[in-house]
Amino acid sequence: MKDFLSLKDLTVDLWKQLLHASAEVKVRPSNFRQMLVGKSSVLLFEKSSLRTRLTFELGMKQLGGDAVYLDHQESRLGGRESLTDMARNLERWFDCIVARTFSHETAVKLAEHASVPVINGLSDAEHPCQALADVFTLQEKWGELQAKTLVFIGDGNNVCTSLIHAAALSGMSLVAVTPSSHQPHSKAAEDFQRLSTSATASYRWTDSLDGLQGADVVYTDTWVSMGQEEETRERVQVLQSYQVTPELMASTGRNSYFMHCLPAHRNQEVTDSVIDSPQSLVFEQAENRLHVQKALLLLLLAPQELGRYMLLEKFAGWKG
Ligand code: CP
Ligand code: NVA
Question: Is 130 a known active-site residue?
Answer without folding.
Answer: yes
